[in-house]
Backbone:
């Protein structure tokens, strides 16, 4: 069930960024040490997007994006650097890590979707 919720969240997030004018380059970029959910481009900036999804529970509601902790951020940065090297992206190419939070109702429909642009910025972790 957990993976179904995550998959549904990622599908909705991909549709959301496409509607917002992003060109999706790749989804589910995997390495042995982790995954980038969505890699997209908009206004000549490369966006590495982490999607966090949860079901809506009114009595214990929390924002899914709080699950992007320091350990996850380190892995995301490593994955981004690997992708940039592997695809030979220019060193001048601007890029950032964004987070999309998706909250689903019991029927799987989107209750809320939020984009946090440049959510992970340069600082020590």
Residues:
């Amino acid at each position: 069930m957990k993976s179904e919720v995550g998959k549904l969240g990622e599908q909705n997030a991909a549709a959301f960024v496409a509607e917002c004018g992003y060109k999706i380059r790749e989804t589910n970029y995997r390495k042995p040490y982790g995954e980038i959910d969505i890699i997209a481009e908009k206004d000549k900036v490369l966006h590495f997007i982490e999607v966090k999804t949860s079901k809506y529970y009114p009595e214990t509601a929390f924002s899914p994006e709080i699950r992007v902790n320091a350990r996850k951020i380190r892995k995301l940065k490593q994955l981004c650097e690997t992708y940039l090297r592997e695809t030979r992206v220019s060193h001048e190419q601007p890029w950032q890590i964004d987070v999309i939070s998706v909250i689903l109702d019991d029927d799987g429909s989107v209750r809320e979707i939020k984009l946090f642009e440049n959510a992970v910025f340069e600082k020590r972790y």
In short: The CA atoms of residues 30 and 36 lie 7 Å apart.
